[in-house]
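User: structure tokens for this one?
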Amino acid sequence: QVQLVESGGGLVQAGGSLRLSCVASGRPGSLYNMGWFRQAPGKEREFVAAISWSGSTRYADFVKGRFTISRDNGKNAAYLQMNNLKPEDTAVYYCAVVVWSTQTGDYWGRGTQVTVSS
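Assistant:
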């Protein structure tokens, strides 16, 4: 069992920045592929970005050049730096342990709300 706890969401104006954090726990010594997904009201959950245990990254096209995913293996933590935020980025952002081959989530956090005002 893996527990994921997100933090860092909030309200920001368009063009602003936020940094989300996620800490994983439950399997001492394990390294996970980690990722971020988001779900806007009335929409399905969608993939945002992922980072493998070795540091490889993948991004959804709509965040390339604006969002950066990173990790700290010593802390079993992953981060999502979000710059130049747009109102359409408003969603609940979920951290997940990711199955790298399918880019799907295996374990999930409870989510953190990001709201971007115009």
